[in-house]
Design the sequence.
């Protein structure tokens, strides 16, 4: 593929070129340090799977590890998040959940069931039809197939008992880590993203102490336990049982979906995630794109991407597979584009805090974690503090200030 | 491809399917989750919960002061069975 066919323009010093193998036989050139999602997007490969029920084409949406539709098979392992995995020499990537490339015959389900499907009534009787339908559904849907081979080494297990666990290395988490380590605390610091992504976001060096690729997947209050898995590509997984005295939850905010027509088409991505990925790869868009969103938040993202922002109420539908236009209501015409970036207000990533016992409250675009004046949101076997966007989207600068303030309060209570 | 507006892309739940469930008398977040399967896919509701609650508030079916999301349970992030099994190993050191 020549540079003119690319979706992105690269700035800055050229980074090492590499190649990824897509779907067995297609060799795609990429840059070291790109995520798999960005490399595929750059090469115009937007469809990476078929959806569960209607068998519609799907691709990456949020581009920051939340949404679940960039899952692909990487180096023989199923359900890897393409948006959090960096490209390396010889990497092999395959789509999931699709029968054939291009026109998939199973997509007939989508065409035939225009009015929707209520699976409580669809092909439930007679029983033999139900059994047939269940058999087909089980084979068509689901999440990939088993790994190609056993892992080279079994997963390891480590038990940690720090003074403070910090979950998240966004603005608030980084600020909290700086304050707590300066104060001499014994800190464990985790983030599910890779170090390159975090460094790109921080635009600064990030402490070696950070455990990257480490997602906290559960809080077990009775056991006083925060469970995390470190899942570095190419290395044995590590299960961490973390039993902290204090936890700073700085999990930030997620990009939810905007329910505009055909919001599932490959090429519909979240504006914030796209911008972060472009910054990481020092790239800009070389293809036409639009933002769908309203208010100052969406306008700022559209300006940063250098594209127009369309209010959701004006959108009639997204067109094309992959996306080629957004048509507007009331004779406002159509915008040709190859990417549609949705810009809903980020919704706090409240799940871990809530598992730990924190209260949440609806606040505009999502549920925000409630806390006291000092920042505490739950006290059980451990004291849980909430900092930054998880308490309501506030943006990077305010989140950093908040992380610093909450960490100072944690430090005070440890003394 | 028919025009569809998705609330939950993991489990393919559209606006019209949520409306259908509401018409059947299901107005609670937990009821709608159980009936439509929304929020039960790989992302575990991270993407859809805001869109669903916004819809319920706009329709006057949920009170913004009191509405709650569906229960957040582990796993919040993907975890492999191999990693979970490592926690059960007798030499794990925590006696579990």
Sequence:
């Amino acid at each position: 593929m020549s540079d003119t066919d690319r979706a992105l323009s690269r700035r800055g010093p050229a980074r090492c070129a590499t190649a990824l193998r897509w779907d067995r036989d297609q060799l795609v050139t990429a840059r070291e340090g790109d995520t798999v999602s960005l490399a595929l997007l750059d090469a115009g490969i937007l469809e990476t799977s078929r959806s569960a029920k209607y068998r519609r084409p799907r691709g990456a949406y949020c581009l920051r590890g939340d949404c679940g539709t960039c899952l692909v098979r990487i180096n023989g392992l199923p359900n890897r998040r393409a948006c959090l995995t960096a490209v390396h020499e010889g990497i092999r990537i395959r789509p999931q959940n699709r029968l054939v490339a291009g026109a998939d015959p199973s997509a007939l389900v989508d065409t035939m069931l225009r009015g929707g499907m209520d699976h409580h009534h669809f092909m439930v009787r007679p029983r033999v039809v139900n059994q047939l339908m269940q058999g087909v559904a089980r084979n068509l849907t689901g999440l990939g197939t088993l790994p190609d081979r056993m892992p080279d080494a079994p997963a390891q297990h480590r038990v940690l008992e720090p003074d403070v666990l910090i979950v998240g290395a966004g603005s608030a988490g980084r600020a909290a880590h700086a304050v707590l380590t300066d104060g001499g605390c014994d800190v464990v610091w985790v983030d599910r993203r890779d170090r390159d992504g975090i460094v790109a976001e921080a635009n600064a060096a990030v402490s070696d102490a950070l455990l990257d690729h480490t997602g906290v997947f559960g809080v077990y209050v009775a056991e006083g336990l925060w469970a995390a898995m470190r899942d570095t590509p190419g290395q044995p997984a590590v299960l961490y049982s973390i039993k902290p005295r204090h936890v700073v939850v700085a999990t930030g905010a997620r990009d939810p979906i905007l329910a505009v027509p055909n919001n599932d088409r490959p090429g519909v991505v979240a504006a914030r995630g796209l911008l972060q990925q472009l910054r990481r790869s020092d790239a800009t868009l070389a293809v036409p794109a639009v933002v769908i969103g309203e208010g100052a938040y969406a306008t700022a993202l559209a300006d940063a991407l250098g594209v127009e922002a369309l209010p959701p109420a004006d959108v009639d539908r997204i067109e094309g597979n992959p996306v080629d236009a957004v048509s507007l209501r009331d004779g406002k015409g159509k915008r040709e584009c190859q990417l549609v970036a949705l810009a809903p207000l980020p919704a706090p990533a409240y799940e871990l805090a809530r598992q730990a016992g924190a209260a949440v409250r609806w606040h505009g675009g999502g549920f925000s974690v409630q806390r006291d004046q000092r920042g505490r949101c739950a006290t059980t076997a451990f004291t849980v503090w909430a900092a930054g966007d998880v308490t309501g989207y506030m943006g990077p600068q305010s989140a950093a200030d908040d992380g610093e303030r909450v960490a100072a309060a944690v430090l005070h209570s440890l003394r | 491809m028919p025009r569809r507006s998705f609330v939950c892309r993991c489990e393919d739940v559209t606006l019209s399917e949520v409306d259908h469930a509401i018409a059947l008398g299901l107005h609670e977040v937990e009821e709608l989750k159980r009936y439509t399967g929304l929020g039960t896919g790989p992302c575990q509701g991270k993407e859809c919960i805001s869109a669903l609650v916004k819809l319920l508030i706009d329709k006057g079916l949920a009170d913004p002061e009191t509405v709650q999301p569906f229960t957040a349970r582990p796993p919040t992030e993907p975890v492999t069975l191999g990693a979970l099994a490592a926690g059960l190993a007798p030499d794990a050191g925590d006696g579990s």
Q: What stands out?
A: The longest strand of chain A covers residues 214-220.
